[in-house]
Amino acid sequence: MSAETREPRKFLDPYLAGVILGVVLFATFYVTGGGLGASGGLSHVQTGVLKLLARAHVDRVAYFADMGGGQRNSWANSTVYMLVGTLLGGLVSGLLSRRVRVELRKGPRISSGVRLVMALLGGALMGYGARMARGCTSGQGLSGGAVLSVGSFAFLFAIFVSGYAVAWFFRRLWT
Amino acid sequence: MAPFDLSTLGGAVVSALIFGAFGFGFGFVLEQAGFGDTRKLAGQFYLTEMTVVKVMFTAIVVAAILVAGAANLGLLDMSRVFVNPTFLWPGIVGGLIMGVGFVIGGYCPGTSLAAASTLKVDGIVFVLGALVGVWLFGETVGGFEPFWISSAMGRFTVPDWLGVSTGTAVLLLVGVALAMFAGAEWVERWKARRDAARGQAPSVPAAPGRVRAARLAGAGALVVVAALLAVRGEPTAEQRWRWTSAATKQLLADRTVLVHPAEVVALRQDVNVRVQILDLRPEREFNLFHVGEARRVEAAALERPEELKALLDRPATTVTFLMGTGDNRALATWQRLEARGVGNLYVVDGGANRWLELYPAPACVAERDMAKVEGAGAEAPEWRFVYATGESLPSAWPELPRSHMFRFPCRSPEPAAEGHAGGGESHGFTWPAYAYTKHVKLQQKTVVKGGCG
Lengths: 175, 453
What we know:
- By secondary structure, chain A is mainly α.
- Chain A has two domains: 1-103, no CATH class; 104-175, no CATH class.
- Chain A is built from nine helices and no strands.
- The two termini of chain A are 35 Å apart.
- Chain A has helices at 14-32, 39-53, 55-60, 62-68, 78-96, 112-132, 137-146, 150-167, 171-174.
- Chain A is 68% helix and 0% strand.
- The longest helix of chain A has 21 residues, at 112-132.
- Chain B has two domains: 6-238, no CATH class; 243-396, Rhodanese-like domain (Oxidized Rhodanese, domain 1, 3-Layer(aba) Sandwich).
- Chain B has 18 helices and nine strands.
- In chain B, helix 10 (166-197) runs antiparallel to helix 11 (209-232).
- The longest helix of chain B has 32 residues, at 166-197.
- The radius of gyration of chain B is 30 Å and the shape is elongated.
């Protein structure tokens, strides 16, 4: 195989990708009555892991008990199936476009170690904020926006305001 | 009508496969859009590229048009579609936290999955971080629960907020999105000029003319479709009724919707059910007599957004009865509300006329005007009251023992007629037990909460 054919393919035009994503989102609403999302699946996976480690604790904390308390199987949930599907979809897309490879993406001025610490920290903030807002960018912003929920637009606005407000302080990470 | 009840469609496995398939499409598009690469996402906040805004808002607008269009054509029952309930301040604070997380971590939860699936190490670590984050939230939310459930506004959409039709709101959204895209393109061109002046390659190469023309055509199509929706306006009551399920129409056809007053009384005693009675009669009749805790409301007012929202947001254990003087007005109202997706809704059979026939007021307070008796359905009050009793008579509370709580207006001797109670203090008196067929079936709305449930 020559080096040329191993080059990753180009990304989709953003507007075209948006149209396809919109159609997928509509189909999800049309068939299931709910939208797309990721943070719910993460939360259910996490509760299931916690249940393996500390069963009694899951039963005691109302928030976890709601998902995995008692006989409830936290993993047998529509959000988890969607999460697995999302990972598979990303993988297949990556394989078709030759983008599946172990690598680390970061800004030019920081080390890989810093990037990983920041990814972990940012992920934790994202997870925490997503549960506070009852949904992540996809589940609350995208899906709620498509059904015109006022709270979802307020939420999206808050994300962008906060992101632009702190971007300057973290510019070393990315530029 | 869509959406479908997946629990009856083919069991747990089919349901899992369906959710998996939609997730697959989601992950596939995110990866194709380039959201597996953190620099494309972070670029949004450093104005190097505007892909996030373009993809996200195109998707929102396209999905909003399709959802609103399907609902407008009667293909999608919006009352069964999950609309993220608005909790304004927790949503905003959560969004502010996520904005910081976005800039530090370079992904959002959905895009981090696309990155992790293509083996980007930072994406995998971000997913682990997100798992820690959701865990920490579960551990700490108990400490600020009052805030987390504050500013709850329920199902609150832009059309409700602005008081416009769904089509108009979608058209507005299209306008805002197109303005944002124009802004995004402007920023990218400005950045490209600056890069060129510094002798660098532009971070986003300019799109060829063919692509630009296609984009403009797409934008035009969005505006036209949204404008069509806005012009069409909301569906009429007749259209909505035509779209309601056969099961609902059957309720009306076989008169199951009419509930015997004795069943209403039995439900009022049931601690597991909350009974709500909406009295549609004119104020004068309502003041003369109404069933205990009934609320008077104009039939037309029930379709106002705030009333409709309250009806749609009722807990699944609430059953609502409409009550008229006879049946006709309540049945017409029932039909209109059912067509809007209000479930667990019934009509008190025979209205106030029949209620007073079964649970009569003391003879010294009210008597039946036989000249007015026109049979079920008629909206003429059959009972003449001496004064306004409101809900002070035992007849208003047939489920309560008559031996206490009530002050009796008169001490007229008890008429001996079968089952009929007159006035007077008759300790130990109970209303006759009427035989009836149960019509009320509480229905749980199965609403999928989407990816964030």
